[in-house]
Specification:
Rna Polymerase Sigma Factor, Chain: A; mainly alpha; single chain; about 70% helix; Arc Repressor Mutant, subunit A; 2 domains
């Protein structure tokens, strides 16, 4: 056997009346490649290779005796079309999730992070909102104006008509509340 090239073992014997999927995939490879590439234009080479691999796996695992010899080309073509449709459905669902979580305020606007980072960002946002809910309205307002809007204690005090020490005290209480809640979750 030395000197001969290794070859995939076909799932059926040529004269058994069943389709030899190894040979069918090789003989229709160019047509399937062109079909998938055309329907996935703009999706990248990786997507084309993934779809073709899924078609091959489906042919070897699901076809069985349901496809008669001579109709394998049409069957492979329909499987490829269905796999491409599934691909675009997955992309559409992912886009819908990205839109949902970028407009809902969840996960800091992107699902392109790793799943772990995405979940952690959601949980962190939830914990911070819980801490803000437990503060008094004055403390919450002072914290937001100081750290999110970038105002100084003096500016906040002047606009609220209260002494600067009052704002400093509110911020101190707000930070204590935030720290107490965050240490429970970290």
């Amino acid at each position: 056997m030395s000197g001969s090239r290794s070859r995939l073992i076909p799932f059926s014997k040529p004269d058994s009346g069943l389709v030899n999927w190894s040979d069918a995939l090789v003989s229709h490879r160019v047509e399937l490649n062109n079909l998938v590439r055309k329907r996935l234009s703009g999706a990248g080479e990786g997507a084309v290779d993934d779809i073709l691999q899924e078609v091959a796996l489906t042919a070897h695992s699901e076809a069985g005796e349901t496809v008669s010899p001579g109709s394998e080309q049409a069957w492979l073509r329909q499987v490829a079309i269905n796999k491409v449709k599934d691909y675009w459905r997955r992309i559409e669902r992912r886009g819908a999730l990205e839109h949902k979580y970028s407009t809902d305020g969840g996960a800091s606007g992107s699902i392109s992070k790793s799943p772990y980072e995405w979940v952690m960002a959601l949980e962190t946002t939830e914990v911070i909102n819980t801490a803000l809910d437990q503060m008094s309205a004055d403390e919450r307002e002072a914290l937001i104006r100081k750290y999110l809007e970038g105002q100084t204690c003096r500016e906040i005090a002047q606009s609220d008509g209260v002494p600067e020490k009052t704002i400093e005290y509110r911020l101190k209480k707000a930070r204590q509340t935030m720290r107490a809640i965050l240490t429970k979750f970290i």
